[in-house]
Amino acid sequence: MGLQIIKPHTAIDFMSRRKVAALISGIVILLGLAGIIYQGGLKFGIDFAGGINVQVKFDRDIDVGELNGVLEGAGLPDLRAQRFGQSGKHQYLLRIPSGTYAPEEVRSTIQKQLNQELEADYSIQRLEMVGPKVGEDLKNKAMQALFYAVLLISIYISGRFEQKWGVAGVMAGGLLGGLYVLQLIGLPVGYLALAALIITVGMCWYLRLNYALGAVAALVHDIVITVCILTLLGKDFELSTVAALLTIMGYSLNDTIVNFDRVRENLRVKSPPHLGEVINRSINQMLSRTLITSGTTLLVVLSLVILGGGVIHDFALALLIGVIVGTYSSIYIAGSLLLGIGPTPESEDSGETEGSGA
Amino acid sequence: MRISLTYRVILSAFVIGLALIYSLPTFLGDENPLQSFLPNKQVKLGLDLKGGMSLTLGVDMDKALSNSLGQMGENLRVQAKDEDIVIIRPRVVGNDRLRFFLLDADKADQLERIIERNFNQELSVQNRESMGQKRLQYTLAMTEEHRKELREMTLDQALKVMRNRINEFGVSEPDIRKMKGNRIQVQLPGLENTKRAVELVKQTAHLEFKLVKEEVDPKKAVQGQTPPGTEVFYFSGQGPDSKNPKPIVLNKQPLMTGQHIADASVAFNRYNQPYVSVTFDDQGARIFERVTGNHVNERMAIVLDNKVYSAPTIQEKIRGGRASITGKFSDKEAHDLAIVLRAGSLPAPVNVLHERSVGPSLGQQSIQQGVTALAVGGLLVLIFAVVYYGIGGLIVDLLLGFNMLIIIAVLAGFGATLTLPGIAGIILLVGTAMDASVLIFERIREELRRDMSPAKAVDEGFTRSSLTIMDANVTTILAALILYQFGTGPIRGFAVTLSIGTLASMFTAIFVSRAFFELWVKRKRPGSSLKL
């Protein structure tokens, strides 16, 4: 009765294509970084940069150029209009990238101008003002969130992947110690997140936590590529983007954990074949699960992107990209890296991993 | 986890029953026949879905401190005068220090005793400097403890005043709370006239009655020639930047302030123009009677937030403790002014740091779009599960339904707020919740392929995947917890549904679904095969 997309004895040779995969990832990252540098850094939305967004809905379609022309007379020099949400709903977002205007004054100014100059019914659906102080706070909070995510996830995977919670303790100690010193120097929290990442990679390398290293690499890969693609699509970096990135972190790790568990299980036989073959076989064994889970997740996220409306669109889009990249990376990036550095040497107490692989 | 089937079934049924009871009120709405049996809790919608306004206001603490210092300086001057000590020009410098001159340096000890006696907790002498001719310049600073206390008091006072004002304004279920960094967050669900609300909340409403200095020419005063103790004010709506500015020179020291107001209400004059009638409390009435009695035939300006509303001539001593504030008000403005005067003045000015307002139409639209996306995505997943896993897929679908129920029930039961990103979280979950079942099913299929008996395959499948499922979900929950901690408003809603949903999907996949499978396998004739 049940259907099978992936036949039980599928044997796709993923690992032989890992150089192509690395090339693709490399190109996307380079393009994205070039885009970010070209823009002069990440393009922050009003959450972080401060400013005012006003969402207006008209009863008919209005040319963006015409709308901008009309609003020019409002005396708000930075104001720019753009289309927003599903077409056919005639919604526009008016953006002022600075938080120094009083929001209610901006509202009445816009209302006055639209009433006078435009023959169309409209309603102001949403207004959001973020003052510079709050923007700064939110930026700080977002950085802290990323920082703690890196910290907690590093500690978790170093324990989880290696099945050695003592090592996780060492990892936590090393991380917290290193970060404490850096904090004393007065490093801003954004750099602390970066430092936590570097310390994690360094300690994984030093302690030969190779599964963890592969997972962290895949994670960083996913985040960087998602940010790159969003930049190339001209999207702003908002608080919701950070939320999407954190979710993607969790999702990407989830995939990697499942695949690596299988690798470890397959390595535990009497005379395991060549590592590349084991990784290939493991990925193939998990392929139908990977594709189904990613597939259903893609279905729902795609329906959110298409049907969810303008307010949630960018968040959903970031999730969509993250899910695709996360699936790809757990097959290619994490696996390739593991193949490059070899699995974590199994110690005598590895018996406790019994029964964990799915 | 070797738990007997009966126990498993009972616990599953219990949890699902509970989820049903708590989620039903949300689905059935306010008016339903089961109302008296069900808990009286529905899922609370966030402002982004319900429409309304969220304001974050910063209380200007520098101003509060400097106001308070100024007041203390004035009090000190009066107390010193009582003991024949003359100190002149007490003034606040740099927002945090009080400076004045003592005319007779011989009385320094006596003055400092007064300071120690009356302002021991509040002020400390930082510096005394001889200015010649027996003059001493004193610099006093507020003590750290008092500064802290004052900050808390100011914030609490501002909070109380705002609560009063908003309660009188009549918004249902307002939420007003203190936040870190001298901030107050005000949430007004369902509010439409945002402009009026902002003005109502923001207005300091500092009312003063000041004597007009007729002998000073306002035109000269504007150019900077103000005699000591006087200050230039402008009439409301006729400020220095307006087309027709109207300055007036007033005494700096108010005759009386608005702190003795007992009531304020809107009244209409014979031209049907609204004005605000103010009634003082007993003490206020006595002060008002005294000051008006002392200044008959002089003009007294009514100053609200540094703007002059009127400056009538006092005809006679005014008894009964009533005053009226006239001006070019609309009915609504007069009504709101009465509210703010009744509710009291803010201890310090506030600024809008963050504002988010969502119209009810957009809220409705968001709900509709979110639910559509959920329905379409969910339906696709449900169909896929059945096509792919047959009867097993039906179990997956059932589990998904249970997950939804549990999420709604937990949101309703704990009074958590559902936001648009929260709906997105639920949608995401429909996709990922499948994962746990997929892991289990694929494992069972694998075991079946190894010619294991159905019962054994189910057992193996569940046992071997449970740990992976938990591990894989821990990372999501970690991410959600961090988001909850650092996210604001709508994003928090995402963290909430994501973590509740992830926990629920773990429970249903590992626990409930196992009960289903074991029941299913048990009912089969021995020897028949399990199709998955």
Overview of the structural elements:
Chain A has 358 residues and is α+β, with helices and mostly antiparallel strands. Chain A has 2 domains: 15-43 and 135-345, Multidrug efflux transporter AcrB transmembrane domain (Multidrug efflux transporter AcrB transmembrane fold, Up-down Bundle); 51-130, 2-Layer Sandwich (Alpha-Beta Plaits). Chain A has 12 helices and 4 strands. Chain A has helices spanning 18-39, 46-49, 64-72, 103-117, 132-162, 165-185, 189-206, 210-232, 239-267, 275-307, 310-331, 333-341; strands at residues 51-58, 80-84, 91-96, 122-130. Chain A has a 4-stranded antiparallel β-sheet. Chain A is elongated, with a radius of gyration of 24 Å. The two termini of chain A are 23 Å apart. Mean pLDDT of chain A is 85; it is low at 348-358. With 532 residues, chain B is α+β, with helices and mostly antiparallel strands. In chain B, a hairpin with a 2-residue loop joins strand 15 and strand 16 (307-310). In chain B, helix 5 (144-169) crosses helix 9, helix 10 packs antiparallel against helix 11 and helix 11 (391-414) crosses helix 14. Chain B is elongated and about 110 Å long. Chain B folds into 3 domains: 5-49 and 360-523, Multidrug efflux transporter AcrB transmembrane domain (Multidrug efflux transporter AcrB transmembrane fold, Up-down Bundle), CATH 1.20.1640; 62-143, Alpha-Beta Plaits, CATH 3.30.70; 205-343, Gyrase A, domain 2 (2-Layer Sandwich). Helices cover 52% and strands 21% of the residues of chain B. Chains A and B meet through helix 4, strand 4, helix 5, helix 9 and helix 10 of A and helix 6, strand 18, helix 10, helix 11 and helix 12 of B.
